Amino acid sequence: MALEDAPDFFELNADPEVIQYTGDISFANVEEAKDLVRNYKQYQLHGYGRWTMKHKQTGEFIGWCGIRHFEELGDTDIGYRLLKKHWNRGYATEASIACLEFGFKTMGLKRIIGRADKRNGASIRVFEKLGLRFEREFEEDGVLNVQYVIEKD
């Protein structure tokens, strides 16, 4: 992620449908999105994090995808968020395949999880396409969620 992506992140999180299952709120302004980018320490702490997704041919912003380490879980999570106009085109799956490969082959991870609001069927379908298997249900902040997992062979 780069500072020049902040206006796109602002737009992404401004759509209530895009963030409806995330527990996130919209940024108040582009400066808040810049603060997120400036303060994002996953790369420095773990060598990986979320990446900006851009269309291969046009360079148009699509969203973000990547793996992120959660200290409180002791696990690394695969995640993605796309502008609504890019939904249902396979971009989340395509980018996530590359992220899983990076996590397992380059970073030497043994396990990657995917977590989603149980009502978020689209994200769950992506997990299943990626080969993640259902691991458990859990409640967080009054919301029923699911956790899927994939482990390196």
How many whole angstroms does the radius of gyration measure?
15 Å
Question: By helix and strand content, what is the structural category?
Answer: alpha+beta
Can you list the strand order of the major beta sheet?
Answer: 1-2-3
- On the 0 to 100 scale, the average pLDDT is 96
User: Could you name the ranges where pLDDT drops below 50 across 5 or more consecutive residues?
Assistant: none
Number of strands: 6
The geometry reads as globular
Taken as a percent bin, the fraction of beta residues is: 25-35%
Main beta-sheet annotation: 3 strands, antiparallel
Distance between the termini: 30 Å
Instruction: Note the total helix count.
Output: 6
Helical content stands at 25-40%
Order of helices and strands: HHHHEEEHEHEE
Could you explain the architecture of this structure?
The strands form 2 sheets. The chain has a 3-stranded antiparallel sheet with strand order 1-2-3. It is built from 6 helices and 6 strands. The model has no long low-confidence stretch (mean pLDDT 96). The chain is globular, with a radius of gyration of 15 Å. The N and C termini lie far apart (30 Å). The chain is α+β, with helices and mostly antiparallel strands. 24% of the residues are buried. Strand 5 and strand 6 (143-151) form a beta hairpin.
